[in-house]
Amino acid sequence: MTVWKTCLAAMATLSLVSAAVPAKAEPVKNIVLVHGAWVDASGWKPVYDILKRQGFNVTMAQEPETSFADDVAAVKRVLDMQKGPTLLVGHSYGGSLITEAGVHPNVVGLVYVAAHAPDVGEDEGSLGKKTPSVLAKTAGAIQKTPDGYTYLNPADFPKLFAPDLPHERSEFVARSQVLAAASVFTTPLTVAAWKTKPSWGIVAGGDQIINPDLERWYYARAKSHTTEIKGASHSVYESHPREVAAVIADAARHLQQDAIGKAKK
């Protein structure tokens, strides 16, 4: 009987100790950055450098921009490589991609950076026409090749896409564009990850490629935690990397705290 009482006392002690230990949640250390149309992932380097110094495991997706399906597949391929919870970040057209690819089981949250965030059945081209940008009102700014690929007129690129970057850099980006199939902008989404996963949104206050009012509308509809960087151009991820990286890092910390709270319940 004495042995039995001793065992019961030990079990009670273990229960009290277990209750006192905070619930653990796997830290959100994986971040996947998704670029937009007409550019490649190299523009993320300033944000990448900051997040790497903070201890995050950062990977960039390189989309071919040959079709919406090809681009979503490219993002999912990178997500398959991640071990553990992952924060998915998209810029511009990349916002449509993370909205579609973000249902991937590794993804725990989304960050939209001056990005589109359509709903199921919507496409960013149609939504952009309803809230036109400076780009949409600039005749001849968007050019198309005979086989249906689009690009920004290199003469217009620096002033529309990246006016707050050094001119030498914006000219280089203008001349190193990845031509995007016109169909990528008009393909309706089949899922909307922001409906089921927490999201954050960055409004580029001086954006001339996507109307800042459209960005605000997207994020309000998705109930995203929203930050506005006043005066920033569409190249906000490259011209204001500290502010963009701060939002991404804060989202990762917030997601971990949420996971800890759920584990305690």
From TrEMBL:
Source domain of life: Bacteria
Record-annotated AB hydrolase-1 domain positions: 31-247
Keyword Hydrolase attached: yes
Gene3D superfamilies recorded: alpha/beta hydrolase
MF (Gene Ontology): hydrolase activity
Keyword Hydrolase: yes
Any Pfam family matching the protein: Abhydrolase_6
Keyword set, alphabetical order: Hydrolase
UniProt-recorded name of the protein: Alpha/beta hydrolase
Organism from which the protein derives: Pseudorhodoplanes sinuspersici
